[in-house]
Amino acid sequence: MTDALRLRSRILWHLAWLILLAGLLLLAPKLDVYILYVLTIVCLNVILATGLNLVTGYTGQISLCHAGFLGIGAYACPLFMIHCHLPYLLALLLGGLVAGLAGLMVGVPALRVRGLYLAMVTLGFGEIVFLVLHHWQGLTGGPLGLEVPAATIGGLVIEGDLRLFYLFVIAAVVLIIIARNLIDSKIGRAFRAISHSEMAAQASGVDLPTYKTLSFALSALYAGLAGGLYSQLLGYLSPDPFGLNESILYLTMVVVGGMGSVAGPVLGASLLALLPEFLRDFKEYQDFILSAVLLVVILFLPSGIFGLGRSGWAGLRGMIRERGLTGGAGG
Amino acid sequence: MLIQNLIGGIQAGSLYALVALGLVIIYKATEVLNFAYGEMVMLGAYFGLIFCASLGLPLPLAFLLCLASGALLGVVLEKVICRPLIKASPMTMVIATVAMMGILKSLVRLVWGPGYYPLPIFSINPIKIFSISISGNTLYTTLISVMFMAVAFAFFQFTKLGKGMRATSENQTAAALMGVRVPWIFTLTWGLAGLLAAVTGLLIAPITAVSPDMGNVAIKGFAAGVMGGFESVPGAILGGFLLGVAESLAGSYISTAFKDVIAFLVLVAVLVIKPAGLFGVKE
Amino acid sequence: MAKKLCVLVVIFGLALLPWAAQAETGVTDKEIAIGFWAPMTGFASYFGPSLKNGLQMVFDEVNAAGGVHGRKLVVTHEDDACNATKAVAAAKKLLVRDKVFMLFGGPCAHSVTAVSNLVEKEKVPFLMVSSAEEVVKTHHRYSFIVGMTTWTQSRLMVDFAVNELKAKKIGVVYQTGTYGQGGGDGFLARLKKYNLEPVATVVHKIGDTDYNSQILKLQEGKPDAVLVFSYTKEGAMIVRQAWEMGLRTKFVLSTTANIPGVVDLATKDAVADRYYAINLNSDLIDGPGLKAFNEQYAKKFPKDFARPDFPNERDSLSLLCGKLIVKALTQAGKDLTREKFIAAMESTKDFESGIFPPITITPEDHDAMKSTYWVYFNDKGERIFVNKLYKWNEPFSGSAKPGQTPEDVLNKELESYKKK
């Protein structure tokens, strides 16, 4: 592809996104509260998946505790509002930072372990967060839940599905743009180098500890911000949706959507949030269908649908062509 | 009181150890981290439901059929998950086995429904030694688990096939060059793990009843295996017992509320201090 | 690149297309649309069919007789998978797409709390089968709760242990999570009325299989009775392991323990002459008093009936709700509005369903169940109906009146105990 063609396709791509976004924002007041709610959840998942992609898709580290970071942000934000009387946006940012700090903490043992053991460390951490949220009742209200005060931004109360939707969409867009710029920067390149080969990265001067912990911290920050947004959704919080099953779901979004690309998590998050809505008529089979789809995608497209390299969409076509020629390899 | 705690810990630990064993032999031989193992255990319990309860077969025959079904399940999963994932990254492996977990669980829910079925196949009265009670469950669970673990250990140490499996896990190419039929080893390993899973399911079922969510016990088995060292069979087993006892002691002497947190705190602590697990060998 | 673009556009397009439709209100000349949500998938899918079937039994009968004021009752079913976010999605879909007149659902605590908050804003009546006390801790005009709350259950359990079992040394066991926590708090609060402190307080997690530590702690306290607020399997395992470890005491458990099959889980020896539980129905669920109910259920839902422990208390609660709904719709008259429905619900006094003690709902108190019977296993391990009606008689209840805060409710209770 020539430079001119590449530039043109990039412009088209960005234009498409812009049109989509403008369309959504303009259409929103006409949409009913059900679809607004569902799209709001999609935005939430997109933010989380984009953040998770930083550590998993780009830096190649497994994380099974992102629901925990979501939970930390989800509780920290309203707690800052209630106890420190901070305005919503500030509380949201601080909540994200607290989650980021937690990510930093997880990043440290991540330096010493790899692969399976890393998965277990993150799993353990996630379970600890879940249990703390349940048991530290003085702080979180425990299983009986926490009432969340409504957010006000610049005097405007964020009440009702429409305003909530705008908040989420704007946040999602901003965070995606930031992620994009991060990926293209020196930090992003360091992440990708680590994912390809830690030794090679180290050899070319990438300070492993710094960047590995940074990737955890940043992805946790994103999850924390998503959490602070989530806390506004139902008017009250319970510690239930922050466990291992949810962490696995978020990992699924990234892996299926496509690791190592910006569009990937968006696709994965959308798919996994919208699919249950489409499958409402097949309620009993829903769980089975979702798991089966996941298995099929992961076996044939290990880098996800929009993933890079041979494992992505393009790679699959190439693989099929190859198979046809050689008649398949092995059993 | 301490003894009672230890006994309780050993009972729980024996189950964790059995799960850890099944996980570790799969990992050692085929390098797959099988998140679906809990569901294999769960299916073992459902096999028990079919053969012991529904079909009403005599107990020994029913047992053999359960174990055979478990082994068969293991072989099927090996073909479906393990083969395609041989060269895959840990990420892919995790997601694939997690997907399998979801598939198995939802299938069971579709067929048997989400409720639980009691399966009281063993019923031994508790025995009392001095003032210490040992429940029937503790007795046979611990004894049977230890028996299987000893058999597995002996198998790996002394039989040709077992040594072949160990060789494969050390170095697949070298093993293949030495005449070990690697694909056959894979199948055998998963079959064996499936058999162990079925045994575990049958041991747990009388305590907790048979339900689609039984597989959740596997998480503790994972923690135990990782703690002990996933590269080492005896390590994983010891890790299991250690975890069981630690939980029991923590529950009694610290707080019942924190029994679960302890397990994961210990896990994280161990991994931070010794990344390959207590008895693992750093690669 | 172009392909990626297309895929994204298609997905979002699909997402938006069929959802821009509009509709009208939940009442027509021929039909009343009722929205139903419950866990039909996931780990709690055990509850879904019970809530669905009980309602259906009543509605099918009424529809066959011509409906309510000539209108048939039409139910749309949705799933919440016991997840608050999904419950709200289901509720919104039912309200906005299916334009239902009212909502019925349950039983998961966080789901009902979230939906309860939602209907309060949307001004839609919501009847729930649940034991979640959170829902009534703030007065919600549009929510009605059928099913004894953890608040009421736990306190009546204390009363039973003290008055019926004459227990002086009482141990407390509860599980972490909304359900157990409510029960545990209730135990500790109500014991104050009798100037008692528990001799041991232990907790456990849902799904625990080993209660060694907990039972050791209980043994230290040498209790006459142990109050347990946990789910079915957990309660049964506690009772059995206690017996295996030599702890001989009486157990009082909540409604989850009132399942015929529990004797298989806990073993006969462990329950014989020491296992008491709340029994909300006016007879045992499989007893002669509920024979007609069981027969009808077997005929209508043979597949569910064949599963162990069907029908259970939740089926009967759902049936009660069906009858309440029909009664209120009838009373509200042909000119049906949501406000009239609410008023009719709030004028329910000593409503007889044939399978429960009489039910009362007032404008101040939407918490319908305040009285219960009991069940007990005799020394042969048989279930016996204990014909002693325990009614909540105090001037305060777990339900906040209009204008009251949860703190007011708690303070009122503690104040009344201090007066002794």
Briefly, what is this?
The complex is a heterotrimer of chains A (331), B (283) and C (420). Chain B has a single domain, classed as ABC transporter involved in vitamin B12 uptake, BtuC (Orthogonal Bundle), CATH 1.10.3470.
What keyword list fits this structure?
heterotrimer, A: 331 residues, C: 420 residues, alpha/beta, Rossmann fold, 2 domains, seven-stranded mixed sheet, 16% strand, globular
Structure description:
The complex is a heterotrimer of chains A (331), B (283) and C (420). Chain A has helices at 3-27, 33-58, 66-83, 88-112, 115-135, 137-140, 160-184, 186-196, 198-203, 208-230, 244-257, 263-278, 286-300, 313-326; strands at residues 146-147, 152-153, 156-157, 236-237. Chain A has 331 residues and is mostly helical. Chain A has a domain at 33-244. In chain A, the strands form two sheets. Chain A has a two-stranded antiparallel sheet with strand order 1-4. A two-stranded antiparallel sheet of chain A has the order 2-3. Chain B is mainly alpha-helical and 283 residues long. Chain B has one domain (2-273): ABC transporter involved in vitamin B12 uptake, BtuC. Chain B is globular and about 60 Å long. The model of chain B has no long low-confidence stretch (mean pLDDT 83). By secondary structure, chain C is of the alpha/beta class. Chain C has 16 helices and twelve strands. Chain C has helices at residues 2-16, 48-64, 84-96, 109-122, 134-137, 150-163, 178-191, 212-221, 232-244, 262-266, 268-271, 291-300, 302-306, 313-332, 338-346, 406-419; strands at residues 31-38, 72-79, 102-105, 126-129, 143-146, 170-175, 200-204, 225-229, 250-253, 275-279, 371-377, 383-391. In chain C, strand 11 (371-377) and strand 12 form a beta hairpin. Chains A and C meet through helix 1, helix 2 and helix 12 of A and helix 1, strand 2, helix 3, helix 4 and helix 7 of C.
